[in-house]
Amino acid sequence: MRACTARRVRREPMAYILGEREFWGLPFKVSPAVLVPRPDSETLIEAALALMPVRTEPWRILDLGVGSGCLLLTLLREFPNARGVGVDASADALEVAQANADALGVGPRTTLVGGDWRRPAWAEQLGGPFDLVISNPPYIEAAAIEGLMPDVARFEPRLALDGGPDGLVAYRAIAAAAAGLVVPGGRVLVEAGDGQAVEISTLFASAGFAVDASWRDLGGIDRVVSATH
Questions:
Q1: In the prediction, which pLDDT does 119 show?
Q2: Which residues contact 155 (CB under 8 A, 6 or more apart)?
Q3: What's the whole-model pTM score?
Q4: Residue 194: CA atoms inside 13 Å, Cβ hemisphere, count?
Q5: pLDDT at 3 (0 to 100)
Q6: Residues 82, 134 contacting (CB under 8 angstroms)
Q7: In the chain, where does DSSP find H-type helix?
Q8: In the chain, where are the structural domains located?
Q9: pLDDT below 70 — which residues of the chain?
Q10: Which one of 39, 73, 142, 161 has the fewest CB atoms closer than 10 angstroms to its CB?
Q11: What DSSP letter does each residue of 75-101 carry, written as one string?
Q12: What whole-number distance in Å separates Cα of residue 193 and Cα of residue 140?
């Protein structure tokens, strides 16, 4: 009798299998080119709506690392007169975001461009300034990625996870460029990993921004850092 050989089964996240994930009550197409939208990120939407209560203003919004578009496109649905620019280093991610923008009816108000904050002068092509800059940047320490849940470490795009040696590389780039990206009185809202909010707040304060109290997610984690120019 031949012994059976155990095989490791690669279990792709269900959202990738289905090709869709709900976020803020809206359906978003997803692929392995983008992170799967998560409820924690809805905290950023809550913060933006609370801090910018006039829904009818023609806000200009910039999303750095747009991915599926869940943040930018949700805000464009909530602010019917707003226009948005989404930036991503991945051409495949931009295709997913464009498909979502068209499906959600905000395509005419959305501009998607390729951009990478690891390159010099990355912010000069974006056509600012903006009233609001939002971002869920890579914030996992590079050495910790392999220790994440297998469906995340094996399947979600490393480009959208890897925050460098300390997880803060993208935040430094955003904070350094932020003054040129937002109007006076404009805001920057960034999602933070567990335990990172204090260090991120310090980066923006050092760049001349007034930093508000962090916004906590449902798990009590300081999830969103809000900074005002």
A1: 85
A2: 10, 12, 13, 16, 32
A3: 0.89
A4: 5
A5: 38
A6: no
A7: 14-18, 42-51, 70-78, 91-103, 150-155, 169-178, 197-206
A8: 14-228
A9: 1-12, 139-165
A10: 39
A11: HHHHSTT-EEEEEES-HHHHHHHHHHH
A12: 7
